[in-house]
Each structure stands twice: as structure tokens, then as C-alpha cells.
Design goal:
9 helices; single chain; 14% strand; 7 strands
Length: 268
């Protein structure tokens, strides 16, 4: 028996148009799942689907705004008609709004409510709450399904400057544990993955200078990471496949799986 065979599963990956979500979508597809690529960027979504199909993976793109209940309900119906009944939900949408980042010119007390709420909307409301409210009832009714949320190392140890992002991701961990407890009697598992530092489009300027050399912040991150390097997006794939597998992780719920190179274990 292959513990990590996902044949027959239909994985909905919200945020698959991003580098981390795309890598998890690919891993789930390579393990045998059909993959619903969900995101706002049509060009990136279609490119992701083409890449998956070239590998022999059943996939389709569904344009949606995770902040829209109507969009998510439409996606749920379209996925079922095109790929089959959803059984895996990966919530990989998220990010940090620079307007809510503490700087020399923007102290904590000056961060506006709109920027603060924007980070909570992106990472918690659209990032986890609304997708779970949309797909969760079907999972529970069928007594089958698994949810994988994406947290952050800053959910465990609030990083400097990104205060509202850290708070929102901490809320993701809390909601993950709440849903794991509430949905366990229905046979639905809910877990999270905490990525460490993975260079991507949204944080590249923070980590690298124009000449490609690491910034001072990047050097500080690497010095605090026992493995002394950044992660590669594909390294999240195994964690996603494990948590999605009803055989390999059938008794795993309410757990946060860290893929951080040891960042959160580092002290002095």
C-alpha cells in the first residue's frame, strides 16, 4: 500500500497562482490528485494548469476572489462538475500589505485600520475563514475531507515590523485548531503548514539587493536558521502530500507542520 497515493482525491488549491501554492498543487497532482487551481490571476492560473497537464495531471483553473462568498460557492460547484467532488482544500492565499509594516516613518501607533484590516482580510478572512465556510460543510456532510492552511513562522514568534501580518497568521493557527476540534466527529481533518523563509515575488526585494546579494534582513534570517539557507518552494510539497493523505495522516488533525529549516528551534 502506498501511504502517499492521492489517486481519487480532488484538491482545491486556493492561491495556486503563487509560488508556494503552485508547488503544493504540483506535489498533490504528482501524488495522483486532480487539482483545481484557484486564484485571481487568469494568466498565471492557466500557466499553472498547463504545467500540471504536461505532467499528466488532471487540472483546471477557476478564477475567483477568496474574499467573495459567491465566487467560492461557484468554484465549489464548478470543481465538482469538471473534476469531481472536492476532498482536499489547501488555503495558500496570503501576503503582507506594506502599508501595515512598521518602518522608521511609520511607527506601530500610526498604522491605519484599513491597512490592519486588509492584512486580516487577506490572510484570515479570505485566506482561511470563507474557504472553510464554503467547502467545510460539504466535507462534513460526506464525512470525508482534509483542510491544509498555510501559517507562518511569524505566527509563532512575531517578527519585527510585520505586526498585523504576524497577528493575522497567529489567528490562522487558532482557527485551524478550532476547526480541527469541531470537525473531527465528522471525519474531517484540519491542519496547517508553517513555511520558513522561501524567496518569492512578494518578498524578493526584502531579501535581496538589486545585485542579487542578500540584504541585512536576509543575513539576519539566515544566521537564525540552523540549515543556513532559504527554502525552495518544492520543499513544501511533501508536507502537503502527507497532510492530504487519508492513509499517511489519518490520525493527524489540529497539527502545525513546520518546514522552516529549524528557524523556530533556534535560540542563542
Amino acid at each position: 500500500m502506498n501511504l502517499f497515493d492521492l489517486s481519487g482525491e480532488v484538491a482545491v488549491v486556493i492561491g495556486a497562482t503563487g509560488s508556494l501554492g503552485g508547488a503544493m498543487a504540483q506535489a498533490l497532482g504528482q501524488a495522483g490528485a486532480a487539482v483545481a487551481v484557484v486564484g485571481r490571476n487568469v494568466e498565471r492560473g492557466q500557466a499553472c494548469v498547463e504545467s500540471l497537464e504536461q505532467q499528466g495531471i488532471r487540472a483546471a483553473f477557476f478564477a475567483a476572489d477568496a474574499m467573495s462568498r459567491d465566487d467560492l460557492r461557484r468554484v465549489e460547484s464548478e470543481v465538482e462538475s469538471q473534476l469531481g467532488v472536492p476532498s482536499v482544500l489547501v488555503n495558500a492565499a496570503g501576503g503582507n500589505d506594506p502599508k501595515a509594516t512598521v518602518t522608521a516613518d511609520l511607527p506601530f501607533e500610526a498604522i491605519g485600520l484599513d491597512a490592519w484590516r486588509g492584512n486580516f482580510d487577506l490572510n484570515l478572512v479570505g485566506g482561511v475563514l470563507l474557504p472553510c465556510q464554503t467547502f467545510g460543510p460539504g466535507f462534513c456532510a460526506r464525512r470525508r475531507g482534509t483542510v491544509i492552511n498555510v501559517a507562518s513562522v511569524s505566527a509563532h514568534i512575531p517578527l519585527s515590523r510585520v505586526v498585523s501580518y504576524s497577528a493575522a497568521k497567529a489567528a490562522v493557527l487558532s482557527l485551524t485548531q478550532f476547526l480541527a476540534r469541531e470537525w473531527a466527529p465528522s471525519g474531517v481533518r484540519v491542519n496547517s503548514i508553517t513555511p520558513g523563509f522561501f524567496p518569492a515575488e512578494q518578498n524578493r526585494r526584502l531579501l535581496f539587493n538589486e545585485d542579487g546579494s542578500p540584504t541585512a534582513r536576509a543575513q539576519a534570517i539566515l544566521s537564525h536558521t540552523p540549515m543556513a539557507r532559504f527554502g525552495v518552494a518544492e520543499e513544501l510539497g511533501g508536507a502537503a502530500v502527507f497532510l492530504a493523505s487519508p492513509r499517511a495522516a489519518g490520525f493527524v488533525t489540529g497539527t502545525d507542520l513546520r518546514v522552516d529549516g529549524g528557524f523556530l528551534s533556534q535560540t542563542l
